[in-house]
Amino acid sequence: MPGLVLSRILVGIGEGVSPSAATDLIARSIPLQERSRAVAVVFGGLSFGSVLGLLFAPPIIQNLGWESVFYIFGLLGIIWCIGFESLKGKQLGNNKGLLNLGQSSSGSDGLVPSAVSSESSDSSLEDLQNSLKDVPWGAFFKSKAVWAMIYAHFCGSWGHYTCLSWLPTFFSEELNLNLTEAAWVSVLPPLGSIVITSIAAPFADNLIANGVDTTKVRKICQTIAFVSPAIFMMLSSVDLGLPPWEIVAFLTSGLALSSFAFSGLYCTHQDISREYASILLGITNTVGAVPGIVGVALTGYLLDSTHSWSISLFAPSVFFYLTGTAVWLAFASSEPQDFSKSGPES
């Protein structure tokens, strides 16, 4: 057991850098009018992987043992790394260490030195420390837009992690679905997310391409991502005498619509600063990981204390979804910010 726990910790450490790395690549290579689709493709892979895992893991475990899932997952990761390193080498060779930033919000094209250059592997620890000192940490936390992203990420993660952990139990105990039915129902939210993501991303990009203000587009998408699950959770928590499958449909719809966040919050880091997009996502994602620890445990504690799914699971999520919406509408912005210059709070 200690070895298994340690391996999971190491997986978390390794995977923790991937969202920021992906954000940096998108920010430096994808124009604004295509940003939502790029983010949707990259982060939508989480839903696609969840569906494949839920479908294929049970038969693999049944036929090859539970250890086989870890071996297969690790092998796929190694294959991906080899392929990506080969692709990265060709990209750097073609662009001579430069990545196309595409069009900026003002419509200009430009090239900047890639954050991942061929010489990066030779950088010393001292160079790394100096580069971190140059990051305008203070300017980040003086920005209202950054604080809006931090709180929105926390709120979205609260609903995501608590539902991910507790909905199968809710389906089994509260809706009286058997284990097989509960397992199949667990596939529906990520499957719905794939469908919604394929609609939301082109919708957002088309609005921006047609001249709609980027901040307005991000606010619309994030509001849909928060208000939709809040409404469906409230309907599911009230005793309306609905049959189990209608409640499942409500929750699936709400969680699927939360994927509009890929065209809202998850694009805003790049909107306000392509240079520091990866660091900004690292900040918000770190705060967003807290509900995965605190929220899941608190839900269990409240469930044991109150024996109420409405109070333990749905009420906190609804609270954070609605307050997150209010903060987002009040303070979120996609206006590019120059954090390297000290200025008034924005």
From TrEMBL:
Residues 1-335 form the Major facilitator superfamily (MFS) profile domain. Its main location: plastid. Signal peptide: none annotated. Keywords: Chloroplast, Membrane, Plastid, Transit peptide, Transmembrane, Transmembrane helix. It is found in: Plastid, Chloroplast membrane. The keyword Transit peptide applies. One of its GO terms (molecular function) is transmembrane transporter activity. It is a multi-pass membrane protein. Probable anion transporter. This is Major facilitator superfamily (MFS) profile domain-containing protein. It comes from Panicum hallii var. hallii.
